[in-house]
Design a protein that fits this description.
heterodimer; A: about 325 residues; 2 strands; about 70% helix; globular; B: mainly beta; 5-stranded antiparallel sheet; 4-stranded antiparallel sheet; 1 helix
């Protein structure tokens, strides 16, 4: 099936089998990944002879160094890598388009309703993910990898422990080149000190996985874009470590799975009603979907700015 | 079952985040320094403000603990004076040639004198106002920062006082003399570093610079070291190189306060993590071999 043939796969028996097979594969993959992560994290928290935490951070650092080695070698490559970091259309546009494809794709009434239920729950999960990652990020002090290129010490109980320094290859162009130059003169943005978890990884992982559950082809494209343009570029440019990305992805995936489960089990009636409403009111629903996707393309930057302005106005009024 | 597993997974992920939290850090922009924590509340300090190194002793105006403390390397922290003597919010401290300690206090006001072998008391009637920065002049008189009057007051041991001319200073937080006898003044309200020449003229040496608000200043050789509590930065200034960031402190270590140095040019910094809860650090920055 191609993007130019919406819903075609769902109208054929072969397509139906393929869809069922894919859905089962995704479910089993998610179960295995989930189980593995539970085991890893349980050992991480409960302790074991091997310091798994040190092992994971070491692995993350190695992967970061390998990917960051791509930076600063070619102006063309650095320009391409900088695009999804600085251009909202490039960053979120493709994922938004995939979302819209899954939203508007054809098929039977029932398959369309099912897709919209999944996508509506995905939007709820995306919102909860932003709230969660913001809350975790505000309470977790961890500098970005490019900041760790300078010698630093961090608090460990009542001692200052030398932080492992990471070599950094700055890009030849783009905002990260400027930020690194500013860092060398002691200019550190507050956001450069709270890299964990990657809210972009979490947010776009939720959208991509939600689209993947609703529509395999669109979901694969969205997931690939998220992996390459959102996640990899952030590691290459030193904005995030692979651990920031992986745990952001994990938080997003867990919230998505939880919302999908709860949405179906306990709020199935509301979810079905909302999905059917979007089908009865196609024009209004499409307009609203446009607004949501427009905002999603910038990872909710517009809403964040509006909330910030509202907060400042409220503070000014109170004063 | 699946729901339970997911909730457990989410809880484990969020719980595991705690191990990544570094809480606070010192980032060295200028290479060649090594940072270590010298003193914490476990050693008997709370939220330190002004620091002064004299002889082999570090004197600490412990604002959160309402006390003046002293520490010698390898020894315990000693309390020289506290609330029982009337101290409320010790701001800055300096020691005279004869070993007398003078302490400012921006809550109780005035200047507190601790002469060797004598009880702690207020110095004359001078400085009934909230006091901030303190320094000894080359001729042995005291300079005191008067926050309420936006001025610097000079007075001698007999209690005679007079305002130091030159102009209005919003908050004279800290003073330092250079080798040429010029007085450097940190104003962390208007965010200005002033220089008062030997002729009494006040010059704005650094002002209106984004990301700069001088808290405490201290000369080590020809370099003026400046702490900035608002931006968590330690600066170095000299006329040849201008203003440079040495280190950035962040998280629980952002609120940089006092600064002093020993004879080996090691820097000592005080940090207030939580003034209300009485938490803070004294940090030593020493030149590393690498």
């Amino acid at each position: 099936m191609t993007l130019g043939e919406p819903g075609q796969g769902e109208r054929t028996a072969a397509g139906s089998h393929r869809g069922a097979f894919s859905a089962a594969s995704i479910r089993w993959t998610m179960r295995l990944v989930g189980l593995a992560l539970v085991v890893i994290l349980a050992r991480l928290l409960l302790g074991n002879p091997i310091d798994l935490f040190a092992l994971l951070t070491d692995l993350s650092d190695r992967l970061y160094l390998a990917l960051n080695a791509l930076s600063g070698r070619s102006l063309l490559l650095d320009t391409l890598i900088a695009l999804p970091l600085e251009n909202a259309l490039v960053k979120g546009g493709p994922v938004g388009a995939c979302f819209f494809y899954a939203w508007a794709a054809g098929g039977s009434y029932e398959s369309k309703r099912r897709r919209r239920s999944i996508l509506l729950l995905t939007l709820v999960a995306a919102f909860l993910t932003i709230v969660t990652t913001k809350t975790v990020g505000d309470n977790t002090f961890l500098p970005r990898p490019f900041v760790r290129s300078l010698p630093s010490w961090h608090l460990a109980e009542v001692e200052l422990e030398a932080t492992k320094t990471l070599t950094y290859r700055a890009p030849l162009t783009g905002s990260m080149a400027n930020r690194f130059e500013a860092l060398k003169h002691g200019e550190v943005d507050d956001t450069d000190l709270v890299s964990f978890p990657s809210d972009h990884a979490a947010f776009f992982a939720v959208l991509s996985l939600g689209i993947l559950i609703a529509s395999l082809p669109a979901g694969l494209i969205a997931a690939l874009w998220t992996l390459v343009a959102i996640m990899a570029t952030r590691v290459i440019t030193g904005l995030h470590s692979p651990l920031d990305i992986a745990l952001g992805l994990l938080i997003g995936a867990a919230i998505l799975a939880l919302v999908q489960l709860i949405g179906r089990r306990f709020a199935g009636g509301i979810t079905v009603w909302a999905a059917q409403w979007t089908m009865r009111r196609e024009a209004i629903a499409a307009s609203l979907a446009f607004l949501v996707i427009f905002e999603a393309a910038s990872a909710l930057e517009g809403i964040k700015a509006l909330l910030q302005a509202a907060s400042e106005l409220s503070a000014a009024a109170a004063a | 079952m699946r729901r339970g597993l997911l909730i457990l997974l989410l809880a484990l992920v969020l719980g595991g985040c705690e191990r990544l939290d570094q809480r606070g850090m010192a980032l060295m922009v200028e290479p060649g320094y090594r940072a270590e924590i010298l003193l914490t509340e476990q050693d008997g300090i709370t939220s330190p403000d002004g620091l002064h190194w004299a002889g082999d002793t570090l004197y600490i105006a412990d604002e959160g603990g309402h006390a003046l403390r002293a520490w010698k390397p390898g020894g315990p922290v000693r309390t020289l004076a506290d609330q029982s003597a009337g101290l409320a919010s010790p701001e800055d401290v300096v020691r005279g040639q004869d070993g007398t300690l003078f302490v400012t206090d921006d809550t109780a006001g005035g200047v507190w004198e601790m002469a060797p072998g004598k009880p702690v008391g207020k110095l004359g009637e001078a400085g009934g106002f909230p006091t901030e920065g303190i320094a000894l002049t080359p001729v042995g008189t005291l300079l005191i920062g008067d926050t309420a009057g936006h001025r610097i007051v000079e007075f001698d041991g007999d209690g005679e006082q007079r305002p130091l001319g030159g102009g209005r200073i919003a908050k004279p937080e800290s003073f330092a003399w250079d080798a040429a006898g010029r007085l450097f003044i940190a104003d962390n309200k208007d965010n200005v570093l002033y220089v008062r020449g030997r002729d009494g003229k006040l010059e704005r040496r650094i002002s209106g610079q984004a990301g700069f608000s001088p808290e405490s200043i201290h000369f080590a050789g020809e370099d003026l070291f400046i702490t900035d509590s608002k931006h968590g930065k330690l600066f170095r200034y000299n006329e040849r190189e201008g203003l440079k960031v040495i280190a950035v402190f962040a998280g629980e270590m952002e609120n940089l306060q006092g600064i002093t140095s020993d004879g080996d040019r090691n820097l000592f910094l005080s940090i207030q993590s939580d003034l209300e809860q009485g938490r803070g650090f004294v940090v030593k920055l020493s030149r590393s071999a690498s």
